[in-house]
Amino acid sequence: MVLSILGVAAMMTASAAVPATTQVWENTIYSVASAEDVNYANEMAFTAGGETYVAGIVSGEGFRFCPSVVTPVGVSSYVAKYDDKGMSAWAVTIAGAATVTAITTDAEGNVYVAGTLADEVTFAGADEQNSTVIAGYKDEFGAYSEGQKAAFIAKYDAEGALKAVVPFVPSILPGVATDKATAESIMGFAWYDESIYFKISNLEVADGKLYVGALYTGSTTIGEVKLDAAYQNVEGWMFADLASCSVFTLDAAKLENAEVLFSTSVKGGVTANNESTTSVAFDVNEGVLYASAIVSGTQTIKIGTSEEEKSFSMTDEGVIEYATVVAAVNIADKTVKVSKIYTQSTGNLNKDAVEKIAVAGDNVYVAGIAHSNLAFDNEKAVKGHGDIFVASLKAADLAVNWTAMSGVEEGTGTDNGEVFVG
Q1: What is the pLDDT of residue 128?
Q2: Which of 65, 205, 296, 374 has its CA 20 to 30 A from that of 352?
Q3: 3-state SS of the chain?
Q4: What is the pLDDT of residues 359-398, one digit of tens each?
C-alpha cells in the first residue's frame, strides 16, 4: 500500500476543475504476502493536527512499523498512525480473521475502528497491554461459520492504548427458528438460506457521541437495545434473511448506551417477498443527523421519534421499485427536520447503494453506486455495469440541485465494474 498526503484538498463538483496539489509526504506499507489478500482500498482518518491513521489487511510475516511490530494470525488487520510529518508513530494488530470497514477520530486524537470478524480475534494496544479477545458468530450447532458475520468497534487513544472493544454478534431471528421448526414438524423438512451478518459502514464522532451506521440481518443486542432485521417466509417452508439498517449512537468514552436515531426494516419483520434494505450512510452537522438508505417492499421507516410505513411496488415480472430515503433529524429532541424519498424501478438484480453523505454549507451531497436509472434523476441511465453517482441536495428541503454520474463503459467482461471507495 502506498500512502500519499497532499498539501491541498479539493472538492470536485459537476462543474469545478480540480486545483493543483502539492505532495507533502509519501510512505509505503508492505503488509500482505499474497495478491489474493489485497483489498480495494484502505480505510483512513485524520486529526485536526495533521496526523494520519490507516487500517488495512496484513498477512504472512507481518511488518515492522517502528517502534511497533505487526504480527498477524493468518489474514488479520492492522491500524497504524503517522505523525503530521509522515513518520511512523505506532501500530496495532487486530489478530485473527478481521477486516476494517470504517475508521474515524475525535478532537482528542482517539481513533475508533469498526470492522467484521469470523471467529476469535485478539485486540491489544500498541504497548501490547489490555489484550481482549472477542468471538464471532456461531451457527445453530455451536460452530463458527464461514465468513466474517459479526462486527466490532475498538477505541485506541492517541498513544495507541486500547480503551474499549465492543462486539456486535447477530443471532437467528426467533421467528425464523419457530417457523422452521413448525415446517419440519409438519412436513419433515425446511429450507433456510441463512445469511446472518452485522456490518458497520460509517463512523463519526460529535459532541461526545460515536455515531454508527450499520446494515444487518438476524437479531443483534447492543446493551439495552435490540436490533431485529426481517426474514422471508415462502409457503411456510422456505426462509431467507432480509437486511435492515440503523444509525445509532454510543457514548464515545466507553462505547456504551446505544440509542437508535434512524432505521429501516420490513414491516412486521416477515414477508413472502424479497424486500430489504441495501445500504445506509450518514453525516452529522451542527446538531443534525443526515441519513440515507435504499429500500424496497413495505418498510417501517423510523426517523428520530417519528415512525411511518411506506410501500414500494414489486411486479410479477420482477420489476422492483427501489426507494432512496433521505432524512434529517434534530439530534437534541429527536424530531424530524425534513425527509424526502426518491424512487426508480428496475429489473436489474444488481442493487444500488448509497455509500457517503457529506454536508457542506447549505447543501447535502449523497454519493454511491447506481446500476440502472438514477433515483435522483430518472432521466439519467448508467453505462455498462454501473456508475458512481453524486447528487447535490438543498439542506433545507432535500430538493435536488444537480446530479452527476461517472458514465464509464466498463466493457462486457463479467468481472468489470466500478467500486466506490473513500
Answers
A1: 82
A2: 205
A3: CEEEEECCCCCCCCCCCCCCCCEEEEEECCCCCCHHHCCCCCEEEECCCCCEEEEEEECCCCEEECCEEECCCCCEEEEEEECCCCCEEEEEEEECCEEEEEEEECCCCCEEEEEEECCEEEECCCCCCCCEEEECCECCCCCECCCCCEEEEEEECCCCCEEEEEEECCECCHHHHHHHHHHHHHHCCCEEECCCCEEEEEEEEECCEEEEEEEECCEEEECCEEEECEEEEECCCEEEEECEEEEEEEECCCCEEEEEEEEEEEHHHEECCCCCEEEEEEEEECCEEEEEEEECCEEEEEECCEEEEEECCECCCCCEEEEEEEEEEECCCCEEEEEEEEEEEECCCCCCEEEEEEEECCEEEEEEEECCCECCECCCCCCCCCEEEEEEEECCCCCEEEEEECCCCCCCCCCCCCCCCC
A4: 999 999 999 999 888 999 999 988 888 899 999 999 999 9
Give the number of other Cβ atoms within 10 Å of residue 382's Cβ. Answer: 24
Task: Establish how many alpha carbons lie within 13 A of residue 209's alpha carbon, considering only the half-sphere containing its beta carbon.
Answer: 22
